[in-house]
Design goal:
about 150 residues, six-stranded antiparallel beta barrel, about 25% helix
């Protein structure tokens, strides 16, 4: 993993555990698309789980090109309390046993979606830029999977 402090890594992990919505951007040979998805964070693998039907436009593109980018930000209304992440990763559609494990984690965070969860995708985070603007100071931390 990247050469960042434990305190910085803990701040990134806390942000990812606390937040719920990400944007995901995909590109293919003749198409570009973005979507917003609910996500859960798996700290052990530094990955995210999202649920989206494989028939959606962004999922079709992700099937052909596994590289994705996106953003997340805190919902605090005050600018000086904002935090956000830009990320780059690789996404795969889960199958078999992996789906059940991921779905269990996903539904623990979103129990109301028990009967509405679709295909589960795993985003392996390869790069994160975490911006923390708490207390009026802007601090950027970059984590890169090694």
């Amino acid at each position: 993993m990247s050469d960042i402090s434990i305190k910085e890594m803990n701040a990134i992990n806390k942000f990812l555990h606390k937040n719920k919505i990400l944007s995901i951007c995909t590109s293919g040979e003749n198409d570009i698309w973005a979507a917003n998805c609910l996500f859960t964070f798996n700290e052990d693998d530094m990955c995210l789980f999202i649920s989206t039907k494989k028939e959606t436009r962004h999922a079709k593109i992700m099937t052909d090109n596994i590289i994705v980018v996106g953003t997340m930000y805190s919902k605090f209304p005050l600018l000086f309390l904002k935090q956000g992440i830009q990320y780059k990763g690789r996404v795969i559609l889960l199958n078999g046993r992996d789906v059940y494990k991921a779905k269990e984690v996903y539904l623990k965070k979103y129990p109301l979606f028990k009967n509405k969860t679709h295909d589960i995708w795993k985003i392996f985070l390869d790069e994160i830029k975490f911006t923390d603007m708490k207390m009026g100071r802007i601090k950027n931390t970059t984590w890169i999977r090694i």
